[in-house]
Amino acid sequence: MLLKGKHAVAFARRPDPAIWSVLAFGEDEGLASDAASSLIKAWKPKLGELEVTVLDDDAIKKDPSLLFDNLEAVSLLGDPRAIRIRTSGDKIAALLAEALAEGDKRPDRYAARLVIEAGSLASKSKLRAAASGAQNAACLQLFADEAGDIEERVKTALLEVGATIDAAALHAFTGDLPGHRGIANAEIEKLALYARGLGRDVSLGDIRSLSATDIDHNLSAAIRAALDGNLVAANVALQRLEVAGTSAISILRALQSETLRMLDAHKRMAAGEGAPGMKLRPPVWQSDWPAFRARLGKWPQKRLMRIMERIYEAEQQAKSGSGSADPVVRVLMNELGQAAARAS
Fold first, then answer.
1. Which of 80, 167, 194, 207 is deepest in the core (most CB within 10 A)?
2. Any stretches that span the bilayer, and where are they (predicted)?
3. Co-location of 249 and 333 in the same domain
4. Which domain holds residue 293?
5. How many H-runs (helices) and E-runs (strands) does the chain carry?
């Protein structure tokens, strides 16, 4: 059984009791992790505990019997059990497919439920085909959040701690959230912790104060300035990041994230989506779209792919231990600024 998007999310929250095994996958591994956590929560009995065993590719590949032994084992305390497996693709697909097929042939063989988390899986993936085709399993394909979904998640997280947020603050907060679900969840949890017991709406000023060192702001400012060809502004922002002790790897990661977002924008526009700003992660708000669109004009897809190559090279240099990594990043950012200025 294959479920996609919101149907997959709904199933993870309220799974069919007849389904003993679930594969959750998507381009953002954080989405699969959230779905797995929802399933674990749903499988937990009202009275008692759910015993959860976590396994990964390496452990199972090293000892294949580990998978079946854990599925068959009965809890010493009599509690229900679940096996949670994180896999990076088809490394152990054959073993997992065997387990799913056996679950169809002999529904009473396993004492534990099974949830498998994966990243992006092609339609021809052996693991995806096995989970979709099994009678007693579900295959959940998860997609990135829409802007409205992100806002609802923020408001829900705040309501759980008895807090609310005003519209301007919500707009600013969600606009700065990273596209990766796991990292975004951490930021939402930090906001909820801040808002607990605040006694009023979270304001725009509160959002700004959550980043007292302005590291996130300066990261974005440095990258935007470099890609716009504004070398002075880029170097000012880099100087502030250096004073704040921001690592070179953090800057490279932020640059990589923005480059991937621009590549996604080019892909969507080539497919006829027009101005897909709100579909990007993080979204580009309508007021910011003209500047973002102008930036895209300076950086076609081939040049963006070259940036990805340069990021990899810079990261290798930064991790080589041959000295400070800061000059490596500064050289790269200045090269980008000069290239963008020439493109103007």
1. 207
2. none
3. yes
4. 215-343
5. 16, 6
